[in-house]
Structures are given as structure tokens and as C-alpha cells.
Amino acid sequence: MAPNTAVNALQDGKRRQAQALLQDGEVWLIAARESGVRPEPALTLVAGVDVTWDSLFLLTRDEAVAIVGRFDADAVPPGWTVYGYDADLRDLLRAEVTRLGARRVLLNISEDDPLCDGLTAGLERRVRGWLAPASDLAGDDLPALEWGSAAPLLGQLRSVKTPAEHAAIRGAVNLAEAHLREMAAAARPGWTERDVAAFLHGLCRRDGAEPSWGWAACPNVHVGPDSRPSHAPPGDHALRPGALLHIDYGVRLSHGYCSDIQRVYRLPDGNPVPEEVQAAFRACWQAIQAGAAALRPGTPGYAVDAAARAALIAAGYPEYQHALGHGLGRATHDGGTLLGPRWPRYGQTVEGPVREDEVYTLELGVMVAGHGFIGLEEDVIVRDGPPEWLSARQDDLRDLTG
């Protein structure tokens, strides 16, 4: 089914943005098949269509061409010149690459960024075979081609958001925050982590949304000192007076864009909040502010992380064992530059610069012995100056009021 008008407008904007990033003689070739089973993230971003047969989407600075199976042709949205095929697409591809004046072909291959690595090994072999020099095609004058990775282009395309994308993400943030306010007003002593998750899932269904990273593990919910923060599904730890409740939650709206925020609450017990809990909250809050202060266009991702990491360590807490922040958009982890340390597992993703109009999360936390996990996460837009906060910053520990 063709995408709705609002979604198609978002994808059309990304297609045009991609074309502006291409150089003369470059063709970005997106290849996909059975994409409903094995999605190609770049195809979702710029065209929003599922294909069944081997399909190729070619972008240059001036043209957008889709070569798809006959029965997929009518599903390709406006903005693309569409060619449907039956038995073989090789001749169509070679003719279009020649007509477009291609000298360099960019493929979706990346060692570091999974959202830029959508081309399967088998399909890559087929593409290279279709475009190999051949003497069996009369009149075929396909030029010699240089091959390259689309990862630099695609990483920038995914991470630098258009105003329409900012609005879409802002809507997802607003809804997630509204859901958490309802949860805080409804939670009762005895609620388990599963109960909290079930309540939020009910709000998603009511509002036509879905959890950002799936029904099984979103939200992540942790109650009290015996609940270790992880990506595991919610468990059976129950709310008791004085217990901390930590939630990592986001929603995905029908346009495909999502949010990702963390909040921490306390079930009142009639006593003041213990100083060790207040101190840990302040340290987390200040470390996130330090990261935000470093989040400026041109700053390498690792340097933003280093600012927050140093602030938390200086306050006397152990460093967090993950990146400070990641891109946010159509995926919860939306590719591009990562705000993380120079650890081998992050590869080159932390070396890239922060760019204006990118959207990031800023997240970290500490475990407070005897009380539970304090984790905060905010969503921000990079601006030429201080970042714009999409989420309403949690500036103090919140009480559950139910």
C-alpha cells in the first residue's frame, strides 16, 4: 500500500536532501528485495515502499529512478521515474547507469553503522555482476565504474534532520512525556515492573502509537535496588514506599518517527529523600548539562561524550559503560555520528562531527546502593549555539502521585 501523504512528504524531503549531497557523476544505488522481511533502512528513509523482487533505486543530483518488479511499480511514491520489469532487470540498469553519466556508484556498505549497511552480500554480488564489463550486449557502452560506500552520505542524511522531521520527533517526545505523566499519577504500591509496562502499552494502543523499540522490551523498567538496569523485559520487582522507579521509554508514531527518554521517580514514604539519592541525581543532571554544553556543530562525537563522562567521574561516580548519546529519528538508534568514547566497539562512528539540525539523545545514570538506578535521558536538536531541548528536562526527582 502506498504511504499516506504526510509520510510521503517526509520521505520526499529526505530524497531531495540526499540528492543535494551527491556529486556530479555519482549514483547512489539502493538495492533491496523481500524488504518486508529484510528491510533496507535507506529505502524506508527515502522511498517508504516495500518491494518483493530484486529492486534498484538510483539517485543522482538531478534524477531519481526506480527499477522494480512489475507488480511493485504502482507502489513507488511520486518523485521517482519508475521502470517495471518481468524477466530481467540487467539491461534496464545498464542503460540507466549509462544515461545518467555515472562514474562512481555508491552502495550501502558500512563496517561501523548498521543503518548504512543495508546491502546484503548476495545482492551486492548480483549488482556488481549486472554492472560488470560485458561484450555480449550490442551497443552497450557502459563506462568503467568506480565503486564506493554510501555510508558518509547516508550517515549525514539520516542524522541531519529537516524541519518536518524535527516536528515529527517533537510530536513523539510530547506523547511519551504525556504517557509518563499519566503513569506517575496512576502507579500504586505493589505495581510491578510488568504492571508499569502494561499501563504504558495500554496508552500506546489508545493513542495509535507503538513502543519505540518494540513491545517486548520498551519500556525498560527498573524498581528498587535489586533491579539491575538492562535491556531485558520488565520483571516482577514491585513498588514499595521509598523505592526508586526508573523508566526508559519512547513511542513511535504513524509517520515512523520516535522518541527516547528516561525518567526516575520515587514512591513517597513520608521521609525526606535520602541525601545519597539526591546527590546521585544532581551528579547525573550536571553531567548531562556538561554534555549539552559541548554539543556544538563541528565537535567530534567522542569529545561530547568526554565532557559528560568527566563531569560524572569528577562527582565521584563510576563512568557509564555506553555512549552518552545517539541519533534519533526513524530509528531509536538512527545512525550517523555517535556521542561515545573511543572504544573499539564503536569504530569510526564517534570520530564524526556533530552537525547542526541533528537530533541526539543525552543519557547516563548511576546505581545507588540500597535504593536503585537513577538514569536520565533527554532529546535535543543541535543548533548553532546551545542545543534545543525537545524534552522537558527532568530537573529534580519526581514523586509518584497515585
Give the helices and strands, then pairings:
Elements: H1 5-21, E1 26-32, H2 41-46, E2 55-59, E3 64-69, E4 81-85, H3 90-99, E5 104-107, H4 121-130, E6 146-149, H5 151-159, H6 163-186, H7 193-207, E7 210-211, E8 220-223, E9 244-249, E10 251-252, E11 261-266, H8 275-294, H9 301-314, E12 359-368, E13 372-381, E14 388-389, E15 398-399
Parallel strand pairs: 1-5, 3-4, 5-6, 11-15
Antiparallel strand pairs: 1-2, 2-3, 7-10, 8-9, 9-11, 12-13, 13-14
Any overview of this molecule?
With 402 residues, the protein is an alpha/beta fold. Helices cover 31% and strands 19% of the residues. It has nine helices and 15 strands. It has helices at residues 5-21, 41-46, 90-99, 121-130, 151-159, 163-186, 193-207, 275-294, 301-314, and strands spanning 26-32, 55-59, 64-69, 81-85, 104-107, 146-149, 210-211, 220-223, 244-249, 251-252, 261-266, 359-368, 372-381, 388-389, 398-399. The strands form four sheets. It has a six-stranded mixed beta sheet with strand order 4-3-2-1-5-6, with helices on both faces. Strand 13 and strand 14 (388-389) form a beta hairpin. Helix 8 (275-294) packs antiparallel against helix 9 (301-314). The chain is elongated and about 85 Å long. The mean pLDDT is 94.
Rounded average pLDDT: 94
Q: How many runs of DSSP E, i.e. beta strands?
A: 15
Largest sheet: 6 strands, mixed
Radius of gyration: 24 Å
Helical stretch tally: 9
Structural class of the helix and strand makeup? alpha/beta
Features:
402 residues, alpha/beta, 9 helices, Peptidase M24 domain-containing protein, Peptidase_M24B, Creatinase/aminopeptidase-like, Pept_M24
